[in-house]
């Protein structure tokens, strides 16, 4: 563990030195809040669902099998009781301290905002936002949670669609452009809790030209070899040890 301790000290030094830090995170940031990475195989898929999760969470499947889509979505993607963990909280504190400029996340759970982060770019949308496809009426999470089958708009009867980016759908251009700008201008980029396997999101890392690249992830990532600091450990534990400047 001494090694991890030294790595955390190194991270502390970087955070103390720089005040233009951008954080880029994925599913691993929320697993310590009890939200499983839906890609992790837990055997349940084979018992309950006839299709792999990537198929169910695709635009074409949403169109062709909406009932099955929502069955999976309610069961596997919604965690209303999840609370921010040490990583979410520390990032919000570091933003308030003028260290972290932006959090760019692939997660759709809203936990960064719940922890108090203000500048959060959600590359894949949020389960907390839902819209009627016909009249664009906004609905919160409860509209999906408290419905069965296909959720319908109270106003016009249209289908309520979660504001999350499904497979085969493009990312929001405004969000992408803002993420590129923050990463390109950052002095430090901390990549955390992501295997960097999902594109185009993972490709945004290419825009970083700053001083220090930090990678914090339990498993190996394609960027490990480029990292100035590589920490292979649980991200909540790592951030829990960081002191506010």
Automatic annotation (TrEMBL):
Residues engaged in binding Zn(2+): 132, 135, 153, 156
Known EC number: 2.3.1.286
Enzyme class: transferase
Reaction catalysed by this enzyme: N(6)-acetyl-L-lysyl-[protein] + NAD(+) + H2O = 2''-O-acetyl-ADP-D-ribose + nicotinamide + L-lysyl-[protein]
Every Deacetylase sirtuin-type domain range: 1-245
Chain's role: NAD-dependent protein deacetylase which modulates the activities of several enzymes which are inactive in their acetylated form.
Family classification: Belongs to the sirtuin family. Class U subfamily.
Protein name: NAD-dependent protein deacetylase
Species, as recorded: Simiaoa sunii
Name of the gene: cobB
């Amino acid at each position: 563990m001494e090694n991890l301790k030294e790595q955390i000290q190194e991270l502390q030094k970087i955070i103390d030195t720089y005040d233009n830090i951008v954080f880029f995170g994925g599913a691993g940031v929320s697993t310590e809040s009890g939200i499983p990475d839906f890609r992790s195989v837990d055997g349940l898929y084979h018992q309950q669902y006839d299709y792999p999760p990537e198929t169910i969470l695709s635009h074409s499947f949403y169109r062709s099998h909406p009932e099955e889509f929502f069955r999976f979505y309610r069961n596997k993607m919604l965690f209303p009781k999840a609370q921010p963990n040490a990583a979410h909280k520390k990032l919000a504190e570091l933003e308030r301290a003028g260290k972290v400029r932006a959090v760019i996340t692939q997660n759709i759970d809203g936990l960064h905002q719940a922890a108090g982060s203000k500048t959060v770019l959600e590359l894949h949308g949020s389960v907390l936002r839902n819209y009627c496809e016909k009249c664009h009426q906004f609905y919160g999470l409860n509209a999906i949670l408290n419905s069965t089958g296909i959720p319908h708009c109270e106003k016009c009867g249209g289908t309520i669609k979660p504001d999350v980016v499904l497979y085969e759908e493009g990312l929001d251009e405004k969000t992408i452009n803002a993420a590129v700008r923050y990463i390109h201008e950052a002095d430090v980029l901390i990549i955390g809790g992501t295997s960097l396997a999902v594109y185009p999101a993972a490709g945004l890392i290419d825009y970083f030209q700053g001083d220090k690249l930090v990678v914090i992830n339990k498993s190996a990532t394609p960027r490990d070899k480029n990292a100035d600091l590589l920490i292979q450990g649980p991200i909540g534990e790592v951030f829990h040890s960081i002191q506010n400047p």
